[in-house]
Request: fold
Amino acid sequence: MRRIVVGITGASGSAYGYMALQALRAIGGIETHLVLTAAARRTIALETDVSPDDFEALADVVHQDNDLAAAISSGSFLTDGMMVIPCSMKSASAIAYSFNSNLLVRAADVCLKEGRKLVLVVRETPLHLGHLRTLTQLAEIGAVILPPIPAMYAKPASIDDIVAHTVGKALDQFGIPNELFKRWRSP
Reply:
C-alpha cells in the first residue's frame, strides 16, 4: 500500500486539502497521514461548512502538529511523499530553511532529506521578492511548487471544478491516476 502525508496549513484554500483527502479516499490503496496546523483549524472554521473533524475522518491516520515524535517525523518511516495543500508562506518559509518547529514542517523536511516527493500548493498573492526567493530555495532543494492556478481551457463551471483541477495536478505529481479535471486534448 502506498502512503501519502497530507499537510494542511492556515493559508486560504482549505477546500483544496479537503478535496485532496476525498480524492485519495475514493481512489483507494493509499494510506493517508494527515497533519492540520492550528491555523488550518481556524481557517477551516472560517472558510468552510465542515469541521476539522470532517477532515480527520477522511484520513487513515491523524497526527497532532505538536507531536514531533510521530512516525512521519522520521525518515525511517517510509512514505511516497507529502503534499501541503494549501501551503502558507509561513510554512513554506519554515520548510525552505528547515525550521522544524512543528510536525508539518518536520515531515516536509524529512521528505526533502530522503529524496521523496514534496508538493507545495502555495497559496499567496501577490508575491513579493522574499516570497519568490523562498519558492526558489524550495525548488532548488527539491520541492515541487504547484500554486492553485486554474486552467481556463477546461472551462470551469464552478469553484469545485477549479479546486479539482489543482488537486488532480497534485495527485499527478505522485503518479496517482485520477480524472478530477479535463485534460488538454489537441483541438
